[in-house]
Amino acid sequence: MTDSATFTLRPIPKAAFIAGYAGLLPQVIAAAMVLSGSEYQWTGLALAYGYAAFIFSFIGGMWWALGMTTRTDDASANGIFALAVAPSLLALATYVPWIWGLSWPGPSLAWLGFFLLLSPLGDRWLGAHCALPVGWMKLRWHLSLGLGGLTLLLAGLA
């Protein structure tokens, strides 16, 4: 069987920007729960942690998909797939303090916020090894600064 798939990179559609920005709402809701002073503060922190970890892992999934659709040399492919699994492994590492009964969720939220803020640097590296759609970096910076910033704010409130 021959490889017959052809991929055409198009600018990111407006719907992706709208959906991406709407994806910040769970963290905004979590922040409202924490700031409410109600009995839902702990639930808000747990929601914030879980959502940040899920989205950080999702970023790795996007990187994996880009790696799968890119023709590149073996060394670059190795780097792309190593980069792609890093978010899931780092998110899992931030979960370990809760399992072991250590201080949680503040430090874990702080680490996730820091990782999310830095994640567009992974996209920048990825862009040197495969083509990214027009608007990719703009959307990634906006969403990473938004989610990472909210997550760090919540870490400070934990």
- Helix-strand pattern, N to C? HHHHHH
Share in β-strands: under 5%
Low-confidence stretches: none
Q: Residue-averaged pLDDT, rounded? A: 92
Query: How is the main sheet built?
Result: none
Percent helix, as a range, is over 70%
Number of helices: 6
Tell me the span between the first and last alpha carbons.
Answer: 55 Å
Radius of gyration: 17 Å
Spatial shape = globular
Question: What's the count of strands?
Answer: 0
Structural class: mainly alpha
How many individual domains?
1
In short:
The protein is 75% helix and 0% strand. It has helices spanning 14-22, 25-35, 41-68, 74-99, 106-127, 136-157. It starts with 13 loop residues before the first helix and ends with a helix.
Kindly describe this structure.
Keywords: Membrane, Transmembrane, Transmembrane helix. The protein is mostly helical and 158 residues long. The protein has one domain. It is 75% helix and 0% strand. It contains 6 helices and no strands. The longest helix is centred in the middle third of the chain and has 28 residues.
Helices and strands in order:
Layout: H1 14-22, H2 25-35, H3 41-68, H4 74-99, H5 106-127, H6 136-157
Helix pairs in contact: 2-3, 2-6, 3-4, 3-5, 3-6, 4-5, 5-6
Which short descriptors sum up this protein?
158 residues, 75% helix, globular, mainly alpha, 6 helices
